[in-house]
Design brief:
This protein is an all-alpha fold. The chain has helices spanning 2-12, 14-25, 29-42, 52-64, 70-100, 110-123, 127-130, 137-147, 152-177, 181-185, 187-213; strands spanning 104-105, 108-109. A hairpin with a 2-residue loop joins strand 1 and strand 2. The radius of gyration is 17 Å and the shape is elongated.
Length: 214
Amino acid sequence: MEVIHLLLDFLKDPLTVLQMFILQYGTLVYVILFLIILVETGVVVMPLLPGDSLLFSVGLIAATTGEINIYFVIPLLILAALIGDNINYFIGKKFGDLIQKKEKLLFLKKEHIEETEKYFEKYGTKTVILARYIPIVRTIAPFVAGAGEMKYKTYLTYCFIGACLWVCSITLLGYFLGNIPWIKTNFEKVVLGIVLISVLPIVIKVFQAKFCKK
Protein backbone atom coordinates (compact mmCIF):
# COMPACT_ATOMS: atom_id res chain seq x y z
CA MET A 1 0.00 0.00 0.00
CA GLU A 2 2.86 2.41 0.82
CA VAL A 3 4.32 1.87 -2.65
CA ILE A 4 0.94 2.70 -4.25
CA HIS A 5 0.61 5.86 -2.13
CA LEU A 6 4.14 6.91 -3.08
CA LEU A 7 3.37 6.31 -6.75
CA LEU A 8 0.20 8.42 -6.53
CA ASP A 9 2.12 11.20 -4.75
CA PHE A 10 4.80 11.03 -7.42
CA LEU A 11 2.22 11.33 -10.21
CA LYS A 12 0.49 14.22 -8.45
CA ASP A 13 3.49 16.21 -7.25
CA PRO A 14 6.83 14.84 -8.51
CA LEU A 15 8.70 17.99 -7.44
CA THR A 16 7.84 17.59 -3.74
CA VAL A 17 8.60 13.85 -3.75
CA LEU A 18 11.88 14.43 -5.59
CA GLN A 19 12.88 17.11 -3.07
CA MET A 20 12.08 14.64 -0.28
CA PHE A 21 14.32 12.04 -1.93
CA ILE A 22 17.17 14.57 -2.17
CA LEU A 23 16.75 15.46 1.51
CA GLN A 24 16.74 11.81 2.62
CA TYR A 25 19.22 10.23 0.21
CA GLY A 26 21.48 13.02 -1.07
CA THR A 27 23.46 12.04 -4.16
CA LEU A 28 21.75 8.62 -4.19
CA VAL A 29 18.87 10.50 -5.83
CA TYR A 30 20.72 9.97 -9.12
CA VAL A 31 20.36 6.21 -8.67
CA ILE A 32 16.64 6.65 -7.86
CA LEU A 33 16.09 8.80 -10.96
CA PHE A 34 17.98 6.31 -13.12
CA LEU A 35 15.85 3.42 -11.84
CA ILE A 36 12.54 5.29 -12.27
CA ILE A 37 13.27 6.14 -15.92
CA LEU A 38 14.64 2.63 -16.49
CA VAL A 39 11.50 0.97 -15.12
CA GLU A 40 9.11 3.45 -16.79
CA THR A 41 10.62 2.75 -20.19
CA GLY A 42 11.78 -0.83 -19.67
CA VAL A 43 9.02 -2.70 -17.86
CA VAL A 44 6.03 -2.98 -20.17
CA VAL A 45 3.58 -3.59 -17.29
CA MET A 46 4.54 -0.32 -15.52
CA PRO A 47 3.43 2.49 -17.86
CA LEU A 48 2.09 4.76 -15.11
CA LEU A 49 5.36 5.93 -13.55
CA PRO A 50 6.04 9.68 -13.97
CA GLY A 51 8.03 10.60 -17.06
CA ASP A 52 7.61 14.09 -18.52
CA SER A 53 6.70 15.72 -15.20
CA LEU A 54 9.67 14.02 -13.50
CA LEU A 55 12.12 15.28 -16.12
CA PHE A 56 10.67 18.79 -15.85
CA SER A 57 11.07 18.62 -12.05
CA VAL A 58 14.69 17.50 -12.42
CA GLY A 59 15.43 20.50 -14.63
CA LEU A 60 13.63 22.89 -12.28
CA ILE A 61 15.57 21.70 -9.22
CA ALA A 62 18.84 21.89 -11.15
CA ALA A 63 18.08 25.52 -12.03
CA THR A 64 16.73 26.73 -8.68
CA THR A 65 18.72 24.88 -5.99
CA GLY A 66 21.63 23.26 -7.82
CA GLU A 67 21.03 20.04 -5.87
CA ILE A 68 20.98 18.18 -9.18
CA ASN A 69 23.80 18.60 -11.70
CA ILE A 70 22.19 19.21 -15.10
CA TYR A 71 25.35 18.21 -16.99
CA PHE A 72 25.48 14.85 -15.21
CA VAL A 73 21.80 14.00 -14.97
CA ILE A 74 20.90 14.44 -18.65
CA PRO A 75 23.41 11.84 -19.99
CA LEU A 76 22.49 9.57 -17.05
CA LEU A 77 18.78 9.63 -17.85
CA ILE A 78 19.39 9.23 -21.60
CA LEU A 79 21.34 6.08 -20.71
CA ALA A 80 18.49 4.89 -18.45
CA ALA A 81 15.93 5.46 -21.22
CA LEU A 82 18.11 3.62 -23.74
CA ILE A 83 18.67 0.61 -21.47
CA GLY A 84 14.97 0.54 -20.54
CA ASP A 85 13.85 0.67 -24.16
CA ASN A 86 16.21 -2.12 -25.16
CA ILE A 87 15.00 -4.34 -22.30
CA ASN A 88 11.43 -3.65 -23.42
CA TYR A 89 12.26 -4.41 -27.05
CA PHE A 90 13.66 -7.84 -26.19
CA ILE A 91 10.75 -8.58 -23.83
CA GLY A 92 8.46 -7.94 -26.80
CA LYS A 93 10.62 -10.12 -29.04
CA LYS A 94 10.61 -13.00 -26.54
CA PHE A 95 7.19 -12.82 -24.87
CA GLY A 96 5.10 -10.62 -27.19
CA ASP A 97 2.57 -13.27 -28.19
CA LEU A 98 2.14 -14.47 -24.60
CA ILE A 99 1.55 -11.00 -23.10
CA GLN A 100 -0.83 -9.93 -25.88
CA LYS A 101 -3.12 -12.86 -25.05
CA LYS A 102 -3.74 -11.34 -21.60
CA GLU A 103 -6.59 -8.83 -21.30
CA LYS A 104 -4.79 -7.10 -18.43
CA LEU A 105 -1.42 -7.52 -16.71
CA LEU A 106 -0.87 -5.23 -13.71
CA PHE A 107 -1.27 -1.67 -15.13
CA LEU A 108 -1.06 -2.84 -18.75
CA LYS A 109 -4.24 -3.41 -20.73
CA LYS A 110 -4.55 -5.16 -24.07
CA GLU A 111 -6.14 -2.03 -25.55
CA HIS A 112 -2.93 -0.10 -24.78
CA ILE A 113 -0.98 -2.49 -26.99
CA GLU A 114 -3.60 -2.29 -29.74
CA GLU A 115 -3.52 1.52 -29.64
CA THR A 116 0.27 1.54 -29.93
CA GLU A 117 0.10 -0.87 -32.87
CA LYS A 118 -2.14 1.69 -34.64
CA TYR A 119 0.55 4.33 -34.13
CA PHE A 120 3.08 2.02 -35.78
CA GLU A 121 0.70 1.45 -38.69
CA LYS A 122 0.29 5.19 -39.16
CA TYR A 123 3.80 6.53 -38.44
CA GLY A 124 6.04 3.48 -38.92
CA THR A 125 9.47 3.60 -37.31
CA LYS A 126 8.98 7.28 -36.40
CA THR A 127 6.62 6.00 -33.68
CA VAL A 128 9.68 5.10 -31.59
CA ILE A 129 10.52 8.84 -31.46
CA LEU A 130 6.98 10.28 -31.33
CA ALA A 131 5.94 7.86 -28.58
CA ARG A 132 8.47 9.41 -26.21
CA TYR A 133 6.10 12.30 -25.63
CA ILE A 134 2.97 10.21 -25.05
CA PRO A 135 2.46 8.49 -21.67
CA ILE A 136 1.68 4.75 -21.80
CA VAL A 137 2.50 4.67 -25.54
CA ARG A 138 6.07 5.60 -24.55
CA THR A 139 6.34 2.46 -22.44
CA ILE A 140 4.60 0.10 -24.85
CA ALA A 141 6.16 1.24 -28.16
CA PRO A 142 9.50 -0.59 -27.63
CA PHE A 143 7.59 -3.75 -26.67
CA VAL A 144 5.46 -3.57 -29.84
CA ALA A 145 8.58 -2.88 -31.93
CA GLY A 146 10.14 -6.07 -30.59
CA ALA A 147 6.97 -8.13 -30.92
CA GLY A 148 6.50 -6.82 -34.46
CA GLU A 149 9.93 -7.98 -35.54
CA MET A 150 11.28 -4.49 -36.30
CA LYS A 151 14.95 -4.88 -37.23
CA TYR A 152 17.09 -4.18 -34.17
CA LYS A 153 19.54 -1.89 -35.99
CA THR A 154 16.64 0.25 -37.25
CA TYR A 155 15.02 0.29 -33.82
CA LEU A 156 18.28 1.23 -32.07
CA THR A 157 18.78 4.26 -34.33
CA TYR A 158 15.32 5.69 -33.68
CA CYS A 159 15.52 4.70 -30.02
CA PHE A 160 18.75 6.70 -29.53
CA ILE A 161 17.36 9.79 -31.30
CA GLY A 162 14.13 9.59 -29.31
CA ALA A 163 15.88 9.18 -25.94
CA CYS A 164 18.16 12.17 -26.56
CA LEU A 165 15.32 14.41 -27.76
CA TRP A 166 12.94 13.45 -24.96
CA VAL A 167 15.33 13.76 -22.00
CA CYS A 168 17.06 16.91 -23.29
CA SER A 169 13.92 18.81 -24.33
CA ILE A 170 11.80 18.22 -21.21
CA THR A 171 14.66 18.53 -18.70
CA LEU A 172 16.03 21.71 -20.28
CA LEU A 173 12.51 23.14 -20.46
CA GLY A 174 12.28 22.76 -16.68
CA TYR A 175 15.81 24.14 -16.31
CA PHE A 176 15.23 27.33 -18.29
CA LEU A 177 11.71 27.96 -16.94
CA GLY A 178 12.59 26.99 -13.37
CA ASN A 179 13.54 30.48 -12.22
CA ILE A 180 10.28 32.06 -13.33
CA PRO A 181 8.41 32.92 -10.08
CA TRP A 182 4.98 31.89 -11.42
CA ILE A 183 6.33 28.44 -12.37
CA LYS A 184 7.73 27.91 -8.86
CA THR A 185 4.57 29.00 -7.06
CA ASN A 186 2.18 27.16 -9.38
CA PHE A 187 4.12 23.97 -10.02
CA GLU A 188 1.12 21.68 -9.49
CA LYS A 189 -0.70 23.53 -12.28
CA VAL A 190 2.39 23.23 -14.48
CA VAL A 191 2.54 19.46 -13.85
CA LEU A 192 -1.18 19.17 -14.64
CA GLY A 193 -0.58 21.12 -17.86
CA ILE A 194 2.29 18.82 -18.84
CA VAL A 195 0.14 15.76 -18.20
CA LEU A 196 -2.79 17.20 -20.19
CA ILE A 197 -0.56 18.11 -23.13
CA SER A 198 1.02 14.64 -22.98
CA VAL A 199 -2.29 12.78 -23.08
CA LEU A 200 -3.88 15.13 -25.63
CA PRO A 201 -2.94 12.92 -28.62
CA ILE A 202 -4.66 9.96 -26.93
CA VAL A 203 -7.80 12.01 -26.20
CA ILE A 204 -7.91 13.26 -29.80
CA LYS A 205 -7.50 9.68 -31.02
CA VAL A 206 -10.44 8.51 -28.87
CA PHE A 207 -12.70 11.29 -30.15
CA GLN A 208 -11.67 10.59 -33.75
CA ALA A 209 -12.47 6.91 -33.31
CA LYS A 210 -15.92 7.69 -31.90
CA PHE A 211 -16.61 10.30 -34.57
CA CYS A 212 -15.60 7.89 -37.35
CA LYS A 213 -17.91 5.23 -35.94
CA LYS A 214 -20.81 7.65 -36.05
